[in-house]
Write a structure and sequence with these properties.
Structural class: mainly beta
Number of strands: 26
Strand content: 35-45%
CATH class of the largest domain: Mainly Beta
Number of domains: 5
CATH architecture of the largest domain: Ribbon
Strand order of the largest sheet: 1-2
Distance between the termini: 181 Å
Amino acid sequence: VNECELELCGNGKGVCMNTGGSYNCHCNRGYQLKVQKGIRSCTDIDECARPNICGDGGSCINFPGHYKCDCHPGYRLKPSRQPLCEDIDECLDSGTCPDGRCENKPGSYKCIPCQPGFRAQNGICYDVDECAEDTACKHGWCENLAGSFRCSCGEGFVPAADFRSCVDVNECQNGSLCAHGVCVNTLGSFKCQCPVGFQAVKDGPRCKDVNECDFPAACIGGECVNTVGSYQCLCRTGYQLERNRKCQGLWLWVCPRERARLPSPSSSSWGLTREPHVFVEGAPDP
């Protein structure tokens, strides 16, 4: 008896091979041999009964002789011999997160805003080099850090509390500067404003007394005595100070007819025999 004429293996499910007194089934792919009560046949293999056959991102749908993976959103069918749903890495697309960092997740993704000091480019946050900007750390030196920067300041400046700028030092808060003068704070430094009789010196922050006696014109015909911030011009007897800098001899007027210039009121070099009415210029009348 040729059992193969009875299509015991199943039409389209396998190939029947007749043997002496029996038969055998060679099942197609997706089918398996089943023997029940001595009858051989090819039955469908339920691939969906296998755990996780489509992966975590899909559902298995069984068909006669084969199966299909229905992929969830965020997954795609992997091009391989065995169907499998694989995750789509959306972060490979540079336009996915234009304003932040792209973080891929199973079946999805997440855009994470860049931290301060970073700038997004193609889904990646890159450090911003603040030191490349001309306005960074004016009056100092800029050191770029990851997500930030730090200022080291020049002379006359100190870093601000956040180390992101340089602040002028008010040297005038030190009360020991500019002795005998007024301290004026300037950007990055200071200067001394000195009163009359003093001058600023370069070797130290102070006002130095001017020795007016070093100038011959300061006291003509007298003795110059320097004082702190000023000086005195001392005239000898018979002279008086004019315009605070010249000792001028006194004039004697002899009346009614003689007019003489005497070096002093006690001089007798003129040989006068009578006492005329004498007026001393610059002196009160007798």
